[in-house]
Amino acid sequence: MAITLYELQGAKDIRFSPYAWRAKLALAHKGLAPDEIVPVKFTEKDKIAFSGQGRTPILVDGDKTVPDSWAIACYLEDAYPDRPSLFGGETGQGLAKFVNAYADGVLLGGIARQILWDVFQNVDPVDRDYFRETRQGRFGKTIEEIRDNRAGERPAWEAILTPLRATLKAQPFLSGEAPTYADYIVMGTFMWPRCTSAYPLLPQGDDPVRAWRERMLDLHAGLCRAAVGYEEDFGLAESA
Ligand SMILES: N[C@@H](CCC(=O)N[C@@H](CS)C(=O)NCC(=O)O)C(=O)O
Predict the structure, then answer these.
(1) Which residues approach ligand 1 with their CB closer than 6 A?
(2) pTM of the model
């Protein structure tokens, strides 16, 4: 069956959606590659109307249409049970749901409060007014105010990193000895700044989250490392 992934498209074809990255990593973990990736701009709602909702990513697998990154991971786990497990069983799936809530409710916001301006620079020009209006509504501040206050976010950001640091100090992946979907949720979230911003979110040197992120960049034949993006502190690093 043909697999198609609908994915957000930024300026100059940059693919920075944290949710799409989660879906792409979940597919790679299952040893699946989309036959087609369809780029979708924020305002191209007509392109995804068939899915009955207005957000990407959307997975189409044969006659099955699955929007939402969490639902996509659960679908892949059920539809491809003989391939490597994304959750390692029901308990793992339950805990991954918690990680999903942490990433969406805490981690993404902490990142946004530091790099939303940089994301805005990488939104396709046709989407910029829409992005500004919807995101400023969400944060109750202008994108410029968020940018100008970002240094003040550091203490809150360090607190957000605390559970990741504590876990990754003790084990190589959030899931233990090998990565599962919990790692992909958090890594997908970190691909958002990697693809849009050179602002340093993690300290240089001996940081367990940075070291884990390096390992994650190399997984699945360097899927994440090959993405067009920014190397923190080194400016735009285009590869592949
Ligand atoms: N809960 C969804 C969230 C998906 C989502 O918000 N996607 C963004 C792109 S990163 C989107 O499509 N936004 C459309 C909009 O803001 O109009 C998931 O996990 O996939």
Answers:
(1) 8, 17, 19, 42, 54-57, 68-70, 134
(2) 0.96
State which of 19, 45, 196 you would mutate to test the pocket of ligand 1, scoring each by most atoms of that ligand within 8 A of its C-beta.
Answer: 19
Q: Which two tokens stand for residue 102?
A: 């942490």
Task: Give tens-digit pLDDT for 192-211.
Answer: 999 999 999 998 889 999 99
d(CA 3, CA 36): 7
Alpha helices in 40-127 (DSSP H): 69-79, 90-102, 108-121
Q: How does pLDDT run across 207-217, given as a tens digit for each residue?
A: 999 999 999 99
Which ligand 1 atom is the nearest neighbour of the CA of 23?
A: 20
Compute, in angstroms, the gap from residue 171 CA to the centroid of ligand 1: 31
Spatial neighbors of 93 by CB under 8 A, at least 6 apart, are 74, 77, 87
Q: Any idea what DSSP says for residue 84?
A: P
Q: Which domains does the chain have, with CATH numbers?
A: 3-79 (3.40.30.10), 91-237 (1.20.1050.10)
Ligand 1 center to 13 CA (angstroms)? 17
Distance CA 94, CA 177 (A): 19
